[in-house]
């Protein structure tokens, strides 16, 4: 397995894990009421937007040539760091 494939596989697994976490937040939002429901839904919307952005970067990364993926790696890492921070914030706030 090439370094690019390993990196791609790592981020696919992380994206799947985060998707499951977002689904949990959505279930909590569905069960909440009033202000709590509003806050959950806002966070779910924010996380879904970050997820879509990260998934888009992953799709572009997959299509990058073997030489170009190293250049894209920095942008991928930044997007993932942003998503990870948002997930940690949501987890600490809502659990």
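Sequence proposed for the structure above (95 residues):
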């Amino acid at each position: 397995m090439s370094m690019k494939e390993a990196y791609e596989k790592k981020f696919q697994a992380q994206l799947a894990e985060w998707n499951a976490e977002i689904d949990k937040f959505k279930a909590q939002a569905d069960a909440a009421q009033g202000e709590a429901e509003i806050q959950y839904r806002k966070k779910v919307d924010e996380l879904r937007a970050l997820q879509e952005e990260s998934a888009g970067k992953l799709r572009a990364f997959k299509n990058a040539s073997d030489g170009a993926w190293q250049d894209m790696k920095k942008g991928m890492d930044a997007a993932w760091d942003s998503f990870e921070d948002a997930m940690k914030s949501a987890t600490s706030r809502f659990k």
